C-alpha cells in the first residue's frame, strides 16, 4: 500500500517497508538520482569490520614512553624484536579527520585470545598453557600486564578467565585481524560529522572506529567524503545521539549508493587520482575538494541548482560544528 501527501510543494511518500522522510522537490530529485545511479556498498567487493575492544584500555593502550620502557626491559634482542611487533600504533575515533588523521602517539599491546597460541584451534577456553608460554616468551609485556591483573580479571565475568585469559583483549578481530595491516578506509562511529580517512600504515583501530578493506578504496574515499553522501546520510538512515552527533555504523554505510567504479570512465579515474593526491599529502585541499565535488555532481547527474543546494547544506553543517 502506498499513499502520497502533498502540502505546500513538499511531497511525502509513505510505504509499508521503507523509512520515510519529508523532502522538498529538489531533495526528492537529489535522492532519486543518488539511488538510481549508485550501487549500495553492500554489493561491492569490500569488507566492513569493527576496531578492537580491549575491555580495559589502561592496560593495553600505552604512550610512546611506556612502549620504550617495556622494550628496554626485554632481556634479549629476540624478545625485544618480538615485543616491538606486538606493540602497534593505534588510532582512536577522536584521531580521525576528513581524509586524514592525527596520531596521538598511542600504542596498542595487541594480545589476542590464547596468546601466543591464538591459532591453536585445540584451545577452546582460558589456557594455562598459553599463559605460561606468554610469561616465558614475552616477560617484559607479561610483567606490564600483571600490574593490571585485578581490573583485567574483573572485566566481563561471563568471558574473562572462561573464554579467554585475563591478559587478552576482549575482541581482537579473530576473523579479520589481517585487515588491520591492509590499506583501508577508517572512520569513527560517533561524531559531529562523517569523516573518512585512508590508512596504509598498519594502524590498529579501537572500537570507536570501523574499517573498510577491499577494491577501489581511493575512489570510494572521495565519494564518501563528498557533499552528496554527507547529505544523503542525514536524510536517510543515519542515527543521531541525544546531543545531535551522528552514528556512522557499518550497517548505515553499507546502504550508501555509490556509482560503481569503471576503469573506462575518465571521471572515475580522476576521482581516484584526486583522492590519492590528498592521501599522499600533495594537496591544496580546498582546490581538490572543489574538483571532487564537481566530478561527483557530474557522475550523479545533478543540476547546478542541486549542486548549489548540496553545497549550502554541507557548508552550513560544517560551520555549525
Automatic annotation (TrEMBL):
Residue ranges constituting the TaqI-like C-terminal specificity domain according to the UniProt record: 89-258
One Gene Ontology term from the biological process aspect of the record: methylation
UniProt keyword annotations, A-Z: Methyltransferase, Transferase
Pfam families per the UniProt record, alphabetical: TaqI_C (PF12950)
GO molecular function, one term: site-specific DNA-methyltransferase (adenine-specific) activity
InterPro entries named in the record: N4_N6_ade-DNA_methylase, TaqI_C
Catalysed conversion reaction: a 2'-deoxyadenosine in DNA + S-adenosyl-L-methionine = an N(6)-methyl-2'-deoxyadenosine in DNA + S-adenosyl-L-homocysteine + H(+)
EC class name: transferase
Enzyme Commission number(s): 2.1.1.72
PANTHER family xref list: DNA METHYLTRANSFERASE A, DNA METHYLTRANSFERASE YEEA-RELATED
Protein name (record): site-specific DNA-methyltransferase (adenine-specific)
Source organism of this protein record: Phocaeicola dorei
Organism placement in taxonomy: Bacteria, Pseudomonadati, Bacteroidota, Bacteroidia, Bacteroidales
